[in-house]
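Pasting as-is:
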Amino acid sequence: MHKRRPLSTAAVTAITAVLPIALAAPADAVTYKTVKAKAYTCTTGNYSPKKGFSCTYRYYKTVTARVYTNGSVYLKNAAGKWVSVNYRYSATTKALYMKDPVPTRAATTNMGHANSYGYMSSGSSRVDAYWDKCTPITWKVDFTALKKRGGNATTELTRLKSAFTTLSAAAGYQFTYKGATVAADGEDKHGVPVGDGPSGMFKAATGADITVSYSSTHVTDYNWMELAGNSTIGYGGSSWWISTVTNGRIAGRNFDGLALFDADFVHANEIAPDPTRSKGVDESKSVYLHELGHVLGLDHTTDRYQIMYPSLQKDVPARLGAGDVAGLKKLAAQPCFAPDSDEDPAAYLQRVAHSD
């Protein structure tokens, strides 16, 4: 049985650009040249979760500017004082272009309610299935689609490791990174999982407890239908198998976790993060935490201060809320499974699938 939940972005938001200023020249900008240039601005830039920030430049006025060796640009204010402005200078066109707006709003410190959590296996706060905390959980990642869309695998591996570390610190699970793998789309043209792995979502089993991959409508063999829409940027979950617990009772044992992420969204956040977000908000890491939360068994919540809220919140940092932590701790508090009571579920399904 496979249960997964998508994460959707909030609606595309139009913004009004603001030009932040600083009154002191940077210490390392000791030299500059004075230029006369046309200044272009964008007063109605737009942000798309798949494309990042975009700006249609419009001629503003011709100005005299100081362009420092570190790229800083200074203009005179109404009082005749040189102040820093949010422009960049192009020596090729000899023009000034407004930079993407810089977040200025502080992120929220509200952690929400500790009882704001639920589980995918039961649809409630009752634990019916969970990962065995007494066994290390391995994970692998396939960056193929991300790299083909221009993304930085090194940057995202650092983010992913940070997300796993955050989850481990909250719940005590032992996550072990096992390196790169090949995790291509195992669905048919109708979106039905027909792959060779236990869940059928990948063309072949990866040998890891949790497999991470990236999807894009522009990359052959990495175009999962679950992420083909304009708003869904993540997809995660796991399978479970009825197994015996050490105290003699039975419970669902999670295995074959998968987390898929939209390669274009992740790349857009590398080069042009949402300028309407609060300071310090890392939207890619938030999506990582959310989908991996699904992998561990957490369901969506109606509390917007939790990482398991079903849409990105521009003022909520990439961290676990009070309900997220409580839900994870309850999962990790479940008893361990008997080490030799059942055949490994993934191995069993593979053996049955090839028995004929």
